[in-house]
Amino acid sequence: MTFSEFKASLTDPHPPHKASVLLQALWHDAKGDWNAAHQITQEINSQQGAWVHAYLHRKEGDQSNASYWYGRARQNMPTVSLEKEWEELVKGLLV
Questions:
Q1: Closest CA to 52 of 87, 22, 8, 15
Q2: Which of 49, 61, 92, 95 is the most buried (most CB within 10 A)?
Q3: Neighbour count for residue 43 (Cβ, 10 Å)
């Protein structure tokens, strides 16, 4: 799946069935369902999962919690927009 195909799937009622769990979380986030996205990431114990979790808390505005999760992900707190970080995450997970 390409980034363009993933973005196009946002018009669908459900995430792409071939998408990884973390991509599904980012799909829900892009659709405005932060809670579903957060619920998914809480179940993933990986560096990538921590990064998506960090992004979600940054988006929520909880900088302290985001900072904790960026640390777990071995990432610095981004200075890019949330939209740019979302795109970077999706593209990284599609590889």
A1: 22
A2: 49
A3: 9
At how many degrees (to 10) do helices 34-42 and 21-30 cross?
160
SS3 70: helix
Q: For residue 64, which amino acid is it? A: S
Handedness of CA 67, 70, 71, 75 (dihedral sign): negative
* pTM metric for this prediction: 0.94
pLDDT tens for each residue of 19-57 = 999 999 999 999 999 999 999 999 899 999 999 999 999
